[in-house]
Specification:
Strand content: 15-25%
Radius of gyration: 21 Å
Shape: flat
Number of helices: 9
Structural class: alpha/beta
Order of helices and strands: HHHHEHEEEHEHEHH
Largest sheet: 6 strands, mixed
Helix content: 40-55%
Number of strands: 6
């Protein structure tokens, strides 16, 4: 009398994890669960049970929300710490781009029509569909429009412990406050060597292991060469994550960041042959 029964929340969330493990869209995930028996088993569906359609997954993401997903991510981090899989001795920090839209020609034409010569961060929210996305730059010429993913990873096994998504115009150093650990040494590139970052690390009880810029007086080329080699294996974290933003708005982009980190950690736990986290 009440219509079709709903799907269990654990099965739905497992499907969302599977979506990022396999890098699937909502429609691709719908078909994947229909055709793949291993996917059905992973999500707790029986062989002949009807699986959700694509509209279910977007509704589920809304109901879970970024705040609840953050709690779940933090719970997983605490379990990893209990099992001795992560620590705060050495933490790798870095940031990468999340592209909201590759080209903004239509938005630029609208701005020109209103007499605005340049489309920049001060007025782009008036014309872009994603009002919270901004222009960012990596180096001198690598520009993009969207967000920036800030990641902190334990250097014991390469597991992600913190992730934060900010507009693209937020510098790596200013994003450090969201991912800085509470102890140990923070290993970062030249984007984390300014005085402001050192204050953030000190306030959190951390020691700076950031590579210094070549024009700094305290520059030790041998030490920084060692730190560069130390960082290299962990820079591959970003190569496993899609650079495109699937949703509009910073909160939804943060949701994507958490899901990508969860999927990465799941794969990493298999690689290092980790014991079960929950008894």
């Amino acid at each position: 009398d009440f219509g079709r029964p709903g799907y269990h929340i654990e099965s739905g969330f497992a499907a969302l994890v599977l979506q990022w493990l396999e890098d699937l869209s909502d429609r691709e995930l719908e078909r994947f669960l229909q055709e793949n028996n291993a996917g059905k088993y992973f999500c707790g569906f029986s062989l002949m049970e009807k699986t959700p359609d694509h509209s279910y997954f977007s509704e589920l993401r809304k109901r879970i929300g970024t705040a609840k997903l953050a709690d779940l991510f933090n719970l997983l981090r605490e379990k990893l710490r209990e099992k001795g899989l992560v620590s705060h001795v050495f933490t790798f920090v870095d940031a990468s781009q999340m592209i909201s839209k590759a080209a903004l020609w239509k938005e630029r034409d609208k701005a020109i029509a209103e007499g605005i010569e340049k489309l920049n961060n001060t007025i782009v929210d008036r014309f872009a569909a994603d009002k919270q996305a901004r222009f960012g730059c990596k180096g001198k010429k690598n520009y993009w429009f969207g967000y920036k993913r800030h990641v902190g990873a334990c250097m014991k096994h390469g597991l992600i412990t913190k992730v934060a998504v900010t507009p693209a115009n937020v510098t790596d150093g200013k994003g450090l406050k969201h991912i800085c650990p509470k102890e140990g040494m923070v290993i970062g590139d030249k984007g984390y060597c300014v005085e402001e970052d050192k204050k953030i690390m000190k306030a959190n009880g951390c020691h700076s292991g950031a590579i210094l810029k070549n024009n700094m007086k305290q520059k030790d080329f041998k030490k920084d060469a060692f730190l560069t080699r130390l960082r290299m294996p962990f820079e591959g974290i970003f190569s496993k994550m899609d650079k495109k933003v699937r949703y509009r708005g910073q909160a939804k982009a943060q949701f994507q960041g958490f899901m990508q980190a969860l999927a990465f950690n799941c794969k990493r736990l298999l690689t290092i042959h980790a014991p079960p986290l929950f008894d």
